[in-house]
Amino acid sequence: MGIVSRGFHGKRRDGGDRLPPGQYLVEDFPVLSAGPTPRVPLERWEFAIDTEAGQTHRWSWDELMALPQETPTVDIHCVTKWSKLDTTWEGVSLDVLFEDVESAADYALIYSYGGYTTNVPVEDLLDGKAWIAHRFDGEELAPQHGGPARLVVPHLYFWKSAKWVRGIRLLNEDYPGFWETAGYHNYGDPWREQRYEGD
Amino acid sequence: MRPRLIWRTARLREARVETGTARTLVFEVPGWPGHAAGQHVDVRLTADDGYTAQRSYSLAAPADGELLELTVETVPDGEVSPYLTEVMRPGDEVEIRGPVGGWFVWRPASKAPVLLVAGGSGIVPLMAMIRERRRAASRVPFRLVYSLRAPESRYYAEELRRPEPGLDVTYLYTRATPDGVSRPAGRILLADLAEGGWPAGFEPDCYVCGPTGFVEAAADLLLALGHAPERIRTERFGPTGG
């Protein structure tokens, strides 16, 4: 047990066993970004997967919308301590987008409009674990929450769920992204409280 | 590789009233490794039955040996902030881990002019930069545009009132304006940043911190004034159950 702070009792809002260590529940949806919010017109928007062999698979907005859509309801956990339960998204599973992609790469670097990057192992993107989402709680995804589309990979801290997603580069070697080179953990599992480098 | 961040015991050395709802806390943290202006820490509180709660708070000043300073705004119905602002007394202890963050920082080696844009309690990490500039005797020109509800919500009022060469301060009031100020109360506008900031051609480093809506508005205005997005660093304080 840590140092006891005299007179502290806490709120003990009940997240039960769905709240990872060190997190607390919120009802609102806080916004955290490192810079101004990019605004990407849909007619210019595209999403790409670049393989380690140099092949690029591209989707326009209309092509993304024509793919099978899923509506996952998931809990999300931000490294700044807030967690939000039962958030509902709509988007395309990365399993669908990876269907025709030939790759043996183990690592992925996700890159965004506005220059943000984050790294995620490929196996954490597949098997129903990640989506390119364009709707949140039944509404179009607002720019400040990453619209037109963001990655949603809810089993990792939410900085891995890149806003304004533009593409995924598949790599044979791990390549840390924006926050991973600024003191944050390379993998970011909330259940093991991997917040910062070395956790 | 940076050294792993560990939880350290932090004992409250002194506390100062900042406003009716905010308090500055000075902690003594044995073994503190130092930090850069703009960084934050995680604070962990433990109740006597072992229940814990963690929150992040910006550091308000450069490190002074093993002393570090936070300014905390009371979040109504919050879990952690009311303890820090109302219950805690000198001698009481919490745990602190840090420093955290390598992006929203200003280092004295930097030569570009600096524009700081604060909304409410978003002044805290920006004040750390102002104090770091003073500590390092830097001559980099700074401008602060500080948006707040009313005169009585000013943090660091006396310190910012003292003239400081190379630091210009502009206050914007959103609800109530002091006597003698001609700008009507209201939200931040293009003209405020055009007058209180730097021309985009000077290529200043811009740091914007505050509540989400404020940061979105201010960052958009800076883009409209021609500042490059990569020179605009933002930190959004979510209005959460602090």
UniProtKB/TrEMBL annotation, chain A:
InterPro entries: OxRdtase_Mopterin-bd_dom (IPR000572), OxRdtase_Mopterin-bd_sf (IPR036374)
CDD domains registered for this protein in UniProt: arch_bact_SO_family_Moco (cd02109)
Disordered, as annotated region: 1-22
SUPFAM superfamilies found in the cross-reference section: Oxidoreductase molybdopterin-binding domain (SSF56524)
Domain Oxidoreductase molybdopterin-binding: 35-179
Coiled coil ranges: none
Name of the protein in its database record: Sulfite oxidase-like oxidoreductase
Originating species: Actinomadura luzonensis
Lineage: Bacteria, Bacillati, Actinomycetota, Actinomycetes, Streptosporangiales
Automatic annotation (TrEMBL), chain B:
Coiled coil: none
Pfam families: FAD_binding_6, NAD_binding_1
Keywords: 2Fe-2S, Iron, Iron-sulfur, Metal-binding
Keyword Iron-sulfur: yes
PROSITE patterns given in the database record: FAD_FR
Cofactor(s) named in the record: FAD
InterPro entries: Cbr1-like_FAD-bd_dom, FAD-bd_FR_type, MRET, OxRdtase_FAD/NAD-bd
Residue span, FAD-binding FR-type domain: 5-106
PANTHER family according to UniProt: NADH OXIDOREDUCTASE HCR (PTHR47354), PROTEIN RFBI (PTHR47354:SF5)
Protein name in UniProt: Ferredoxin reductase
